[in-house]
Design a protein that fits this description.
Chain lengths: 431, 431
């Protein structure tokens, strides 16, 4: 089945907004085993819209159109859809009363120009939008079934998932039950993960399990798409594969599905009624900014300290910087973490100290990262060297700091070699 | 002149990466007074690429193609360009020797498969890529001039600005000198700014000055595009308009052109050899994360403190939280800022205290923000109420904190009403 997407609107065409709706649509379809073959973006222009609809209607079996369903004069999707389908626009009494209810529930009177949103091509099938006034609809143009969706991202998302994907799956004759399992990892590059997971999808021989990746440094997302007769069938197929993925990626999996690294760390701390202090240098507040605002963090996150200078970091936790003539080392990080915990009275402290290279930002620019975690019982630490420019080092150190804390809280080894670090000569490493 | 863009590659078509190259291209063209009329995205597929090239070649005068110039088998742009143009692929000795030099300068031997990157359609014009091995080129297909560009963003950017835009301007017959002047502001919404600036572009009556906006909350970018015979002509036209924009937007302009709010604040502190301490609550490190990592910040940024709890924030700067039974008020913020300065020995201290609403995140979710700045000489403060959900409040407070500091350092009033705050009743406001 050939699927195309048409994105409409001057804001997207002129680059005032980045077209994240398209990447959302196409990814969501990939996740259920469907593929977009062609995408077209046109502005709020009658002639171009008509041409885009006609061309897609000649080529495709299904077309998703995004945007142009609003109440203003530059919203043209219904009008041009009717023209391309060769039918009239007619008032949908069904949608009009839905809109009136929508406004009534919010104690507002519906402005007259909203009526335009209930004008649909004759014979169109309504696609419900439970959270907005833009009416989704489906209509045939050429040889394709066209699905019209709103430009507001949350309305699009809901309509795509609840209304359109089930229709596309039915049309494609694909099995109805589909499930996407996701694993988030840190420390393994995409090609390395691909090699580690060779053959896992083939544990289910009928080809209904598909393995995929999405890299967004520093994290990697590993995706398993599973198709089956029903959810029981899907679960039965998924079980051995997901178990194998967990085994092979092991300690590197930091969270699954909708969970995040910072969320997992926070949950682990909460579950033991722990409190946390974080000391940062070149990550300059990014570790705190990732975690301290989350719901529930107000009871866990005790204090964050940012200092660009080791002396200042020591001063902030009440120790003498003169005791560390060697600068940023594992021992220094351990002493800072220990002192931070004592100083603020938290149960846990994380210190992420970084000595960055001298000079201007460049691809070879690097930093030496020393991370320590202290509790009343013990202190653990690791050292790493990362290169790749200012932002790369900073992002990498933020992730590594949080991931070390996750590993510690889960009883895993804090130091495990990752793909993004540079191997140092033994003399330097042992410093 | 009708311009189209064709984006190629499975990674973009499947949504593995968001298509920021397109928004970059189209915005850059808008900035020089050109417009993209139509955009097409296709995968690494011979049939679809050929069709996309042919269709665009029938409709457009100029087409920019992005991606597919790499050395691997799925990079098909040159091959399909030659086919669509009806010519052979020939080896460009010019580009081959450039690539060999490129590798030699990096002390590496050119891998044989890179030779493919020097195969161009016969008669193609080379578009230089000084920072990569992908060779840009221009060739006629149908009635359009096609410009082929690399997918690597920094290579695309350089080629677009240095090679393609001058050619497009020449082809369009537009005046050669073009300049984009940008103002960044915080606190004024787009429609408000539009009203404030009514008529400024008309100060130059020949229509060669164009006013535009780009909103990215919390900041607004105001853009003036000026066309002229030469740069002297452009400067002469721009002078009265930019002066008027500065006058009308006044204190709300936080930076111009490539400068940023955090950069301006850092420069102002540096110029008086000042040092800074920042105390944050719900912004949870975002103010530090915006500023403390910048080059030069290591001498200015003394210490950042994050605490979700007012008591903890007070404790971190050595004052007794029991003195503030009213919680987060202007007076509390002033006391915390004063204490932070004394405690860390910095010349300046910024305290951004926030009391957030109870309950789950929602659109009406808000926060009361109290900001204070202390020096040895004095202390200033402001209070504000912002609603719009968790992230909105956090982003707004981060910006407001940095902007108050900018205003203070520039001798401007720290408290000026902004469009994004909710007016409170006088009793609450005076608390």
């Amino acid at each position: 089945m050939r699927i195309e997407v048409i994105c409409t609107g001057d804001e997207v065409l002129t680059g005032k907004i980045v077209n994240t709706n398209f990447s959302y649509i196409t990814q969501k379809l990939e996740d259920v085993g469907l593929s977009v073959r062609w995408e077209t973006t046109v502005g709020d222009d009658r002639e171009d819209l008509l041409l885009a609809f006609r061309l897609a209607g000649e080529r495709a079996d299904a077309v998703i159109v995004n945007g142009g369903l609003g109440p203003t004069v530059d919203d043209l999707s219904q009008e041009i859809a009717a023209k391309a389908a060769g039918v009239e626009l007619v008032l949908s009494e069904e949608w009009l009363s839905k809109m009136q209810e929508y406004f009534a529930r919010r104690s507002r009177v519906m402005p007259p120009n909203n009526t335009k949103q209930a004008m649909l091509p004759a014979g169109a099938e309504v696609l419900d939008n439970p959270i907005g006034t833009a009416c989704g609809f489906a209509v045939d143009i050429g040889k394709a079934r066209f699905f019209f969706t709103p430009g507001v991202p949350r309305e699009l998302r809901r309509m795509l998932e609840e209304q359109i994907i089930p229709r596309l799956l039915k049309k494609s004759g694909m099995q109805a039950a589909i499930f996407l399992k996701r694993f988030h990892s840190y420390g393994i590059g995409e090609s390395h993960a691909d090699a580690l997971l060779a053959g896992v999808a083939e544990l289910v021989p009928d080809g209904t399990v598909k393995l995929g990746f999405r890299a967004h440094y520093p994290q990697l997302e590993t995706k398993l798409t599973v198709r089956g007769r029903d959810m029981d069938d899907v679960r039965r197929k998924l079980a051995p594969v997901e178990q194998e993925v967990r085994k092979r990626l092991g300690n590197f999996i930091l969270a699954e599905d909708d969970h995040t690294l910072e969320g997992v760390v926070l949950e682990a701390l909460k579950s033991i009624s722990a409190t946390l202090t974080v000391v940062e240098m070149f990550t300059s507040g990014q570790i705190a900014a990732r975690s301290a605002h989350l719901p529930g963090a107000e009871r866990v996150f005790r204090r964050g300290i940012v200092a660009r200078d080791l002396g200042e970091a020591c001063g902030a936790v009440g120790i003498d910087p003169g005791s560390f003539p060697e600068g940023v080392t594992r021992e220094t990080a351990e002493a800072v973490a220990r002192a931070a915990r004592r100083y603020t009275g938290s149960t846990h402290a994380l210190a992420v100290l970084i000595e960055i290279d001298e000079g201007a930002d460049r691809l070879e620019f690097g930093g030496t990262i020393c991370i320590a975690i202290a509790t009343a019982e013990n202190v653990v630490s690791r050292r790493s060297r990362v290169v790749g420019g200012h932002d790369w080092v900073r992002l990498g150190a933020t992730e590594m700091g949080l991931d070390c804390l996750r590993r510690y809280l889960k009883g895993l080894p804090v130091h495990e070699r990752i793909d993004f670090e540079k191997i140092e000569d033994p003399v330097t490493r042992d410093r």
